[in-house]
Structures are given as structure tokens and as C-alpha cells.
Design goal:
Elements: H1 2-58, H2 64-77, E1 84-95, E2 100-115, E3 118-130
Antiparallel strand pairs: 1-2, 2-3
Length: about 140
């Protein structure tokens, strides 16, 4: 009977270690994936805010060329977050007929933990604003 008890106790300790290892093999990748998702979510919000600000800026100018130049000037002075490799102006549409400006931006985000072979994520944002400053009709 004593031999049976000692075998049973030894077996339980081994099972606990195996359960802990298997649990860590599942939980650690999930946590690392969560870090990537949180990073992409934060940078997508930053990109949305940037495109919104650029659209507001463009709504105060009077032509497509001026709007494009104003956006490029802002992007040249923009201080990117540490995990952003590139911020580009995808398009500026200055529509006098509809009296609105549409700005699209693209942001390449470096993921802190490359997951499934993907180390960067491309965020795009689009914002529209009504034109505030338009030339007077003659």
C-alpha cells in the first residue's frame, strides 16, 4: 500500500508541471497577439486624428494645389511615433461643387511582436470636412 501512495503522489506533481507548460504555450502567444492588436488600435486612432486635422486645415484654403501643399508641409514637420515607419498623404480631393475636402492618409506601423510573419501593418484613414473658405462669386 505504501508503494501505491508514493507512485500516486509523484505522478500528480509531474502532471501539474505539464499542465503549466501547456497553459503557458497557449497564454503567452495570446498575450503577445494582444500587444500587437493594442498597438495597431492606438496607431489607427492617431492616423484618424491626423487625417481629421489635415482635412480641417485644407478646408481653410481655396484651391486643390494649396490644400495639397499645406498637407505636405504639415506631414514634413510631423513627428512620427516610435513604432511608425512612414506616414504618407494618399489623396486630397478638394471639391468646389460639393464644398467639401476629403483627405486620405496612410500610416505604416511596425508591430512590436511580429506575428505569423507579419512585422508591419498599414493603416489608412479618410476624413471629410466642409470648405470654410471659398472665393467670392464674381
Amino acid at each position: 500500500m505504501n508503494k501505491m501512495k508514493s507512485r500516486y503522489k509523484r505522478g500528480r506533481h509531474g502532471v501539474s508541471i505539464i499542465e503549466a507548460i501547456v497553459c503557458l504555450c497557449v497564454i503567452v502567444p495570446l498575450i503577445l497577439f494582444g500587444v500587437d492588436v493594442a498597438t495597431v488600435t492606438c496607431m489607427a486612432q492617431v492616423n484618424e486624428e491626423l487625417s481629421e486635422q489635415l482635412a480641417r486645415l485644407c478646408s481653410t484654403v481655396q484651391t486643390q494645389a494649396n490644400a495639397q501643399k499645406a498637407c505636405q508641409d504639415v506631414l514634413n514637420q510631423y513627428q512620427k511615433p516610435a513604432n511608425v515607419s512612414e506616414v504618407d498623404l494618399a489623396s486630397v480631393l478638394f471639391d468646389q461643387g460639393l464644398q467639401q475636402v476629403t483627405v486620405s492618409t496612410v500610416m505604416n506601423v511596425n508591430l512590436p511582436v511580429p506575428f505569423l510573419g507579419q512585422s508591419t501593418y498599414r493603416c489608412t484613414a479618410k476624413a471629410m470636412q466642409p470648405v470654410i473658405s471659398s472665393p467670392a462669386a464674381q
